[in-house]
Design brief:
This protein is of the alpha+beta class. The chain has a single domain, classed as 3-Layer(aba) Sandwich (Cytidine Deaminase, domain 2), CATH 3.40.140. Strands 2-1-3-4-5 form a five-stranded mixed β-sheet. The relative contact order is 0.14. It binds zinc ion. Zinc ion binds next to helix 3.
Length: 153
């Protein structure tokens, strides 16, 4: 699929204008592209309870997922900074859930970008396989009963 990265960057920049960042004054915009060529934008949304703040990347990702999207090609991130804006660790993990090969375009204030894949940004990711690797396999009901502590003795 051919999709101009400049268009994705432009969408991310437009989303950045809607950032709600009264505490940090650090406005971020993101635009995530599906493999089918649809894109969804996000901006950071801060909260007076700082821990509730959500990054632009995750806002864009969650908007897309809540619209039924599961397959992503790329995401563009911009904060209008001199440096190329990289996603935080939480956003890297959230993106990894949907694909290690998603291209991450980290954009600076001039619109120049650096691109790395999610797997390059987050090697040795904690993924779906990690959840099943250490789980207990229970083959029959008797085994389950032996794991449950009786309540009424
Ligand atoms: Zn983040």
């Amino acid at each position: 699929m051919i999709f101009p990265v400049e268009k994705l960057i432009s969408a991310a920049s437009a989303a950045r204008e809607r950032a709600y960042a009264p505490y940090s004054n650090f406005s971020v915009g993101a635009a995530i592209l599906t493999r089918e060529g649809r894109y969804y934008t996000g901006c950071n949304v801060e909260n007076s309870s700082f821990g509730l703040t959500c990054c632009a990347e995750r806002v864009a990702l969650f908007k897309a997922v809540s619209n039924g999207e599961r397959n992503f090609e790329a995401i563009a991130i911009t904060a209008g900074t001199d440096d190329h804006c990289a996603p935080c660790g939480a956003c890297r993990q959230a993106l990894a859930e949907f694909g290690a090969e998603i291209k991450v375009f980290m954009v600076n204030r001039l619109g120049d970008y650096r691109m790395q894949t999610v797997s390059e940004l987050l090697p040795s990711v904690f993924g779906k396989n990690a959840l099943t690797a250490g789980s207990i396999e229970i083959s029959d009901k008797k085994s389950i009963d032996s794991l449950i502590e009786p309540v009424n003795r």
